[in-house]
Fold these 4 entries.
Entry 1:
Amino acid sequence: MTLPKNYQAQQNVLKEKVILISGGGSGIGKSAGLIFAEHGADLILVGKNPAHLESTYQEFLDKNLKPPLLHIMDLEKSNENDFQEINTVIEKEFGKLDGLLNNAGILGDKTPLENYKIDVWKKVFDINVHASFLLTKSLLPVLKAAENSSIIFTSSAVGKRGKAYWGAYSLSKFATESMMQIFSEELENTSNVRVNSIDPGRVRTKMRAAAYPAEDPLSLLEAKDIMNAYLYLMSNDSLETKGESISAQ
């Protein structure tokens, strides 16, 4: 699915919405947090690197935006209780959650499957799949407490058609697409929670640079240039969009 033609979000389209972003300290997660705040949302940023989160926090202040809540968490090593604790904090602080962006992810190795290291394989699935599952599952109580809420998973072109040497990353994105579809069907008729995914496409990020080291980064869009798709899915403009995979470009 592509974004509605000429879509333009209204300035206060996310007013009074509470949104959590995993991997919120840099890259696409950071850009999403800033644009959501500019459109009225309260933000909770989850990340592993304190320095990245603190730098992003300062950027919120520099832009005169309401500062986000920061939650330092190693998604690879966290257990289910750690994820449930986030739900408890949000319930106490806000009473609801209007949006969840499952953005955190790692590339792993680009190598043939027959050479893939099992420790790297497990790490990719722990962060890209298991953490997204546990975060979504744990936050469903506060997501259901909102009038309507949106869950966004992060997809990829290699999660729709396998590509040589993309190994665990590609397979993790196939799993992510399937997880999105299953959550969407299970929640569609039993709650006010809608579930979709976004394929960011070719974006100037550290992950992209690691995947394509010879590529000219100036030939790519910046993360801030693809935010229309994220605004659309987080806003009430997408209330009827469910179980879809949207291309941000």
Entry 2:
Amino acid sequence: MKILATLQNNDIAPRFDLATEVLIAKIVRGKISGEPRTVLLPGPGSDALCSLVIREEASLVICGGIEEAHFQYLVWKKIEVIDRVIGPALQAIVLAIAKQLRPGGIVRPETERSAAS
């Protein structure tokens, strides 16, 4: 299984169509296998990003806002989409693996969660 998260710096990009890089993590037996890789895109664009998702054979996409047409396209391709997510991409992936990430989720940085415990 692969999870693809749209990036802006280290956070989830606020809009799918404006992402210029993505973080791709391979998941094996419920854990991230190896180091997630960052892929730079030639420029922003929903169609190119959808093509990358398909090419990478991602099973799950984590993103901020996404147009309905692109959301429906990915779902039609049997790709789960968790949208309207805000916060650090790597923590979002970890929460998604644990089935704790929902659409509209606000992910706090790891340091904030540790301090709150």
Entry 3:
Amino acid sequence: MDIKKKEDELFDKWMAQDEIKCFIKDGCPSPDAYSKSELKIIFILKDANMGAKYILSNPGPYEQREELRTEPGAWWKKIRNWCVPILNPKIKWEQVKSKSVKESLAPFAFMQLKKAGGGGSVQNETLIDFARKYKEYIRAQIAIYQPDFIVCCGVGEIVFKEVFSETASSSMSTPNGVGYWTIRLNGLPDEKITHIIDFCHPSARFGEKAAGTVAFGLSQAINFLKNQSAE
């Protein structure tokens, strides 16, 4: 069964359980590119900034996978800046910013922790409640991608504590100071080992001067863990 079919079946089951306004159908914009990528990496964000006006007039599901596959909004340039150095750690920063957003996102998957469309900000308490209520669905979606790395963007503690705490290791740090946990996706001894990266949100106000440092910091952390696992 292909990735998109698995996603769609999970989303149908999820939406049948509860009516979630503006349910975000997220995940893998290009299953073929993701499957061919050497590293399987998903980003978990907070929620999609759809705006109250949009949600009131469009309460049904929103197909974010299609947006990312065809015409990502301007905000996704911030994620492009992180994706490119992960797969090309020796690239120059100016080259990173010139890369196509759509093509740069293709080898990755992207999840919103809260599937209901949101606004410009969301309280941690709301995210925690959602993660607790839909823990099994969140885990099921993550399992579809069998990721080597789960990059948590401002939601690392929530994903660790509410979704994977019973299977995760103690918190550790890479040499450049990026926190992470090591888990087995379903908690079984023979299950795939995955690293949860505790990283900042792309909208964090670190400024353009630090954007490259942040992007390459994530790349360095992932490459350290990749090389460590290979030893």
Entry 4:
Amino acid sequence: MNKTIRRATIKDLIAITQLIAPFIDEFAINDSGRQLFCVSMIEKMLENPEIHYFVYSDHQEMIGVIAYKNPAHLVHFFISKEKQAQGIGRTMWNFILQEVKKSGVSVFTVNSSCNAQPVYERFGFVVKDETIENHGLRYVPMSLNLVNT
């Protein structure tokens, strides 16, 4: 089946929300944090011109999502639990990295869930601060130096 990375549209809203749902309790520490991933919040992200939201699908199933906010802050990166460890995350990461590099910025940042920290470290990110709890979420601030990548 043909797999593609494309810009997300409002038609993807429910599929995106459903793909993210199984991961929320890994980093949301209360209802305030969980609400950041509800349908209306994802819709706001899709409509925000500062956020570049992409999906990976095989035209039948949403497999992954990745999004960054200008100029270079990764805000969402989720691969369906059933499709992890198949190179999809690496493919999506390489795609988004090339997108961000076009802007000429030198640092890419992410607030990683504790579970995803090893993945981001494999991509070259380094921890910038201790684990933070803010806005109902628990995360590890990380950054990647884009000079020399």
